[in-house]
């Protein structure tokens, strides 16, 4: 008999905590609560409204006020809430607004689920602040049918693991055709980029979505292993004193006059543009192809003043 009593008590506690967890994330009617408890009960017990009301009384005795609105019950005060600052709540709201407009379905679903989970843990005294925040919508919210189609194709081809031929316009509006491995879709400064790997050059490229003309799936399988080109350069003078390493960079060596930096994985165009802006305070050491591209850029600039 004692074993049965302990077992009954154990199941009752289990059901109570399951109800607490359920109401922490949902508002529900009595029939919905009965349906939920029945679905998780391994003993296949039949629940009634009387049983549910008993659980309600126990929750109230624990200091958890239950409220009712439109026949739905919910916890007015959550037992587990995070002490979010107003900056934290603002960041959540920004993520929420951005997620609403993300055309990438997988990322949209994942971020939305995370935000719903976190926002449900905001303390009651700050919930109104979260609801009333007015956040400017991101620039990438408006997409043409063509852009939506390209994003959908990128997701599909990426899952299938085959190489893709990308036709796009470069900065000079010339058409280019490259065979790449699809890596990711990235969002940067309000714009969308296709993050791809060019195995022939061994470099990561960020192609702006608005410059992509088409994607063509090939039969060649993507290896899924991306070994980006290692770019080495040295910096000196005041740049050396104030320079902050980026995510892709490591410090190879340093002295009083200069520092040598190794870069792996930064977009080729973005890296060259950044190094070009450092003028004579930066010098590319390797590879030779990057040095030649820098010389080509300088020659084009000099032609403007010839």
Briefly say what this structure is.
The protein is an alpha+beta fold. The protein has helices at residues 2-25, 30-40, 49-61, 86-101, 105-119, 124-132, 145-160, 237-242, 268-276, 288-303, and strands spanning 66-69, 72-75, 162-169, 175-188, 191-198, 203-208, 212-221, 230-236, 249-254, 258-264, 282-286.
Write the layout of secondary structure elements.
Layout: H1 2-25, H2 30-40, H3 49-61, E1 66-69, E2 72-75, H4 86-101, H5 105-119, H6 124-132, H7 145-160, E3 162-169, E4 175-188, E5 191-198, E6 203-208, E7 212-221, E8 230-236, H8 237-242, E9 249-254, E10 258-264, H9 268-276, E11 282-286, H10 288-303
| Poorly predicted residue ranges | 1-7
| Rg from alpha-carbon coordinates | 29 Å
- How are helices and strands ordered from N to C? HHHEEHHHHEEEEEEHEEHEH
Q: What CATH architecture label of the largest domain applies?
A: Roll
CATH class of the largest domain: Mainly Beta
Biggest sheet, in brief? 5 strands, antiparallel
C-alpha geometry: elongated
Q: How many structural domains in the coordinates?
A: 4
User: How many H/I helices?
Assistant: 10
Broad structural category: alpha+beta
Quaternary status:
single chain
The rounded distance between the terminal residues' Cα atoms is 101 Å
How would you characterize the overall build of this protein?
Helix 4 packs antiparallel against helix 5 (105-119). The chain is 44% helix and 26% strand. Strand 1 (66-69) and strand 2 form a beta hairpin. It has four domains: 14-75, Arc Repressor Mutant, subunit A (Orthogonal Bundle); 86-141; 145-221, SH3 type barrels (Roll); 230-303. With 306 residues, the chain is of the alpha+beta class. The termini are far apart. The chain has a five-stranded antiparallel β-sheet with strand order 6-5-4-3-7, covered by helices on one side. Strands 9-10-8-11 form a four-stranded antiparallel β-sheet. The longest helix is centred in the N-terminal third of the chain and has 24 residues, at 2-25.
């Amino acid at each position: 008999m004692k074993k049965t009593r302990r077992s009954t008590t154990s199941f009752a506690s289990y059901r109570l905590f399951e109800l607490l967890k359920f109401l922490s994330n949902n508002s529900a009617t009595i029939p919905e609560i009965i349906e939920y408890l029945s679905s998780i009960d391994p003993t296949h017990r039949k629940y009634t409204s009387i049983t549910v009301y008993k659980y309600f009384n126990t929750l109230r005795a624990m200091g958890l006020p239950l409220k009712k609105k439109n026949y739905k019950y919910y916890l007015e005060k959550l037992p587990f809430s995070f002490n979010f600052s107003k900056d934290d709540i603002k960041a959540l709201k920004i993520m929420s607004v951005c997620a609403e407009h993300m055309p990438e379905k997988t990322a949209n679903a994942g971020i939305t689920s995370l935000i719903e989970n976190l926002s449900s843990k905001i303390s009651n005294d700050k919930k109104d602040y979260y609801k009333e925040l007015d956040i400017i919508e991101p620039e990438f919210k408006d997409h043409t049918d063509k852009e939506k189609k390209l994003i959908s194709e990128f997701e599909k081809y990426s899952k299938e693991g085959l190489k893709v031929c990308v036709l796009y316009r470069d900065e000079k509006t010339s058409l280019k055709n490259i065979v790449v491995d699809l890596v990711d879709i990235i969002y940067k400064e309000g714009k969308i980029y296709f993050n791809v790997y060019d195995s022939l050059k061994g470099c990561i490229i960020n192609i702006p979505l608005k410059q992509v003309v088409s994607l063509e799936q090939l039969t060649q399988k993507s290896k899924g292993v991306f070994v980006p080109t290692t770019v080495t350069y040295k910096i000196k003078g005041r740049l050396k004193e104030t320079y902050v390493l980026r995510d892709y960079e490591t410090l190879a060596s340093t002295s009083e006059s200069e520092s040598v930096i190794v870069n792996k994985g930064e977009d080729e165009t973005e890296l060259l543009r950044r190094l070009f802006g450092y003028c004579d305070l930066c010098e590319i050491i390797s590879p030779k192809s990057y040095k030649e591209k820098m010389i080509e850029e300088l020659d084009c600039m000099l032609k403007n003043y010839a």
